[in-house]
Amino acid sequence: MCSSKDTTAVDWTAVGRRIREIRGLHVSQTEFASQIGVSQGQLSRYEQGQSEVGAEVLLRLCRTSGKTIEWLLTGGDKLRMRK
To answer: How far apart are CA 10 and CA 66, in angstroms?
Structure first.
């Protein structure tokens, strides 16, 4: 449950860094974009924090990585959903 202390603003630049972390060093943007169903250009915009990530893509990222949506959006709660 969210408390009144929670802020609603999402730092999309930080989200982009976490997406880049999920992609890893040995996977190209083109390959990873294909895995999550977006274009390479769109993935680049996500990673640079230039575009907000929609719900469907967030779910695909979580399912691909095992990370939670909360971790993707805030950097907190690094518990894995499942392998």
So the answer is: 21
Q: What is the mean pLDDT of residues 52-62?
A: 97
Q: Are 80 and 66 in contact (CB under 8 A)?
A: yes
CATH topology of domain 12-74: 434 Repressor (Amino-terminal Domain) (1.10.260)
- Is the pTM above the cut of 0.70? yes
For residues 52-65, one letter each, b for 16 or more C-beta atoms within 10 angstroms of the residue's C-beta and e for the rest, the string is ebeeebbebbbeeb
Is 67 within 8 Å of 80 (Cβ atoms)? yes
Instruction: Tell me if 9 sits within 8 A of 19, measured CB to CB.
Output: no
Segment 59-77 shows an average pLDDT of: 93
Q: Which amino acid is at 69?
A: I
